[in-house]
Specification:
Residues 16-26 have a biased composition (Low complexity). This protein is mostly helical and 241 residues long. It is built from twelve helices and no strands.
């Protein structure tokens, strides 16, 4: 009679193709699935972010000073992440980590919230500098304050599976914005914006902590999107068909 233990050991150390296939994880041999529509949508998001940044730079007398603004930094990060996500969706590789891609939701929602809901905080370093009105400035504001947050929300809600965000992201995502807020309070001249008042700073800190919690909570209860052919987040393993 054969020994089951010995059989499993020999299978584990087998060097023939059958033994190698038995030891290879299923995820390593799964066929890559390309998502061209998701890739095209993310390329459009990248183009919108870059266009808004260029127009914002042309509408100010100090383009280099814009790099110190949180809105500009968040949109540069969005352009890089979505360009990488578009490439991965087109080639069928694994999507960008939810820890990185998901952080864009609160990062881009905060400037829009300050611009449209909290006018008192619209002059802080978290938003674009207030300059003379012009066509380029108006278009850049629409792209960076309106289109980009809505596009990121649409990408998250329509092209990713729910329950991909972890609770640990609730303290990881606000880390940089809170450090930026502390920097803006300590060195307002370096950001090119007036130092926020105590009330404004507390409001910003509260928003920075609340937005990740709202995003993670919404991700836990939202329904799964129906765009199965273009959804890029990994799904669970189902039965064989």
């Amino acid at each position: 009679m054969s020994d089951p233990t010995r059989t499993s050991q020999s299978t584990r150390h087998a060097t023939d193709p059958a033994g190698a296939a038995a030891r290879t994880p299923a995820a390593a041999v799964a066929p890559m699935s390309r998502h061209p529509l998701a890739a095209a949508f993310r390329l459009l998001i990248t183009a919108a972010a870059l266009t808004g940044l260029v127009l914002a730079a042309t509408g100010t007398t100090g383009p280099a000073q814009l790099l110190t603004r949180f809105t500009v930094q968040a949109n540069i990060a969005a352009a890089l992440v979505f360009a990488c996500s578009a490439h991965r969706a087109w080639t069928g590789h694994h999507p960008v980590s939810p820890r990185i891609a998901g952080a864009l939701v609160p990062f881009l929602s905060l400037p829009a919230l300050l611009h449209y809901v909290l006018p008192a905080a619209d002059s802080t370093a978290f938003t674009l500098p207030t300059t003379a009105s012009g066509a380029a400035q108006a278009v850049s504001h629409q792209l960076l304050y309106t289109l980009m947050p809505l596009a990121v929300l649409a990408d998250w809600l329509l092209l990713t599976t729910p329950r991909g965000f972890r609770l640990s992201y609730a303290w990881q995502w606000p880390a940089y914005p809170l450090l930026y807020l502390a920097f803006a309070l300590a060195f307002p001249a370096a950001t090119g914006a007036p130092s926020p008042t105590v009330t404004t700073a507390l409001t910003l800190a509260l928003a920075l902590c609340a937005l990740p919690l709202i995003t993670i909570g919404t991700d836990q209860v939202r329904p799964a999107p129906r765009l199965h052919n273009n959804r890029i987040s990994p799904t669970g393993i189902g039965p064989l068909k």
